[in-house]
Amino acid sequence: MRTLFFVSCRSRSALALAGLALLAGPAAAAPPVSVVEATVLELRRALDSGATTSVEIVRESLLRIALYEDRLNAVIAVNPEALEEAAARDRERAELAAAGRPVPLLHGLPVALKDNIHTLDLPTTGGALAFAGLVPPYEATLVANLRAAGAIVLAKTQMTELANWIAAGMPTNYCALTGYGFNPYDPRRDPREATADGRPALWTGGSSSGVGTAVSFWVASVGTETSGSILSPAGQNLLAAVKPTVGRVSRYGIIPLTADQDTAGPMARTVTDAAILLGALEGAAPDPHDAETGRCPRPEGGDYTRFLDAGALKGARIGIPRAYFYDEVTPPGEKEAIGGLDEGEAALMKEAIEVLRALGAEVVDPADIPSVVAADRDANALLWSVCRGPGQGKGRDADCSIVFKYGMKRDFDAWLASLGERAPVPTLTALRQWNVAHQKMGALRYGQAQLDISDEMDVALDRARYEMDRAKDLRLSRDEGIDAALAAHRLDALLFPDGTGAAIAAKAGYPTVMVPMGFVPNAPAPPFPPGFDARPSPFGVSFTGPACSEPRLLALAYAFEQATRERVPPPGFP
Question: Which of 122, 207, 241, 514 can pair with 267 through a Cys bridge, CB separation 3.0 to 4.6 Å?
Answer without folding.
Answer: 241
